[in-house]
């Protein structure tokens, strides 16, 4: 191996602490550089040891905290813990972010996504959602899904056709649409006013926990319209839900 700036005249080689030292007639000593690299490695190892120790200590502390929980509560299993976490999570969340609600209300009022799909855009038109409706119906039937929460439901134009078709074979199916634009919710409930199995409610999927008691969560073409923070909050809501089938599965 050629060393940088090494003179090619007379050289001598010695060995010190497993480090090969090459000196040329200009007295270039590369031992210092080797020692510097060794010190750097030693420093990195020390940092790694400190980090690992911190993780171990954190685990010990967490174990001590869990040991303080009464045994009768521990015997109830993970269901109790999940219930307590859900209650606390619900308490921490707000209901609807007014800025988000105003933004999407303005989108629909101004038809910024076009007139197709009731203002939800061409991707929500009956023509475009034909394959989606067929696939979703097949999934509901094959997986035995009896209830579904759709968030956000948007103008729900294609959902109307989907539900009418599904109720021909799934009489016990229950649907809940969650949408942040109140005018869309009011219009959808007016269309289904005589059908107790279908109900729409105003909600913010980033700020509210998912309604309990539903087998599945359905969400389509929604996350990309939100901020990164709201996307993270939405995913957390889905993860904390009691739905068996959700977009995170």
Automatic annotation (TrEMBL):
Protein keywords: Membrane, Transmembrane, Transmembrane helix
SUPFAM superfamilies membership: S-adenosyl-L-methionine-dependent methyltransferases
Protein known as: Methyltransferase domain-containing protein
Source organism per UniProt: Pycnococcus provasolii
TM region positions: 44-66
């Amino acid at each position: 191996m050629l060393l940088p700036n090494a003179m090619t005249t007379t050289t001598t080689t010695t060995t010190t602490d497993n480090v090969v030292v090459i000196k040329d007639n200009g007295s270039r000593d590369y031992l210092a550089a080797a020692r510097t690299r060794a010190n750097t490695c030693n420093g990195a190892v020390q940092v790694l040891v400190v980090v690992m120790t911190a993780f171990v200590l954190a685990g010990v502390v967490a174990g001590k905290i869990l040991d303080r929980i009464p045994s009768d509560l521990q015997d109830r299993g993970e269901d109790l813990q999940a219930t307590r976490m859900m209650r606390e999570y619900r308490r921490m969340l707000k209901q609807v972010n007014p800025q988000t609600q105003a933004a999407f209300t303005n989108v629909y009022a101004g038809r910024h996504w076009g007139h197709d799909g009731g203002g939800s855009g061409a991707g929500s038109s009956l023509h475009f959602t034909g394959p989606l409706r067929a696939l979703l119906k097949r999934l509901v039937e094959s997986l035995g899904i009896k209830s579904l929460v759709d968030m956000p439901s948007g103008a729900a134009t294609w959902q109307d056709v989907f539900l009418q078709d599904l109720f021909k074979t799934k009489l016990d199916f229950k649907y809940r649409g969650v949408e942040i634009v109140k005018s869309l919710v009011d219009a959808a409930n007016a269309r289904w006013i005589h059908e107790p199995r279908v109900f729409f409610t105003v909600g913010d999927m980033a700020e509210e926990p998912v309604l309990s008691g539903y087998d599945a969560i359905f969400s389509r073409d929604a996350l990309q319209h939100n901020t990164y923070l709201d996307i993270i909050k939405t995913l957390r809501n889905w993860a904390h839900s009691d739905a068996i089938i959700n977009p995170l599965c």
